[in-house]
Amino acid sequence: MKLKIYTGAEVRELRRKLRLNQLEFWTPFQTTQSGGSRYESGREIPNPVQVLLNIAFGTDAKAAAIFDELRAHGRPKRKAKTTNAEAK
Q1: Which string of DSSP letters, residue by residue, matches 1-34?
Q2: Mind listing the pLDDT tens digit for each residue in 39-53?
Q3: Domain assignment present for 3
């Protein structure tokens, strides 16, 4: 799945449209105000934060696809059980 990669300028514009200060905007993303400020100023936004931004500001279908992919990674394939004869 292809995620939208948000730039600092795009995130700053989203935040301003929502009329939120940096603390209000970045707290739900587990990011400090100063960290958010650095991202908005051009520092690269890390992948985990990019995923959260896609969930928060993407479509419902995009969020569902992200959750499905994360669930698939969280469920490792089970190994077939071996019998006692096979183990020897």
Answers
A1: -PPP---HHHHHHHHHHTT--HHHHHGGGT--HH
A2: 999 999 999 999 999
A3: no
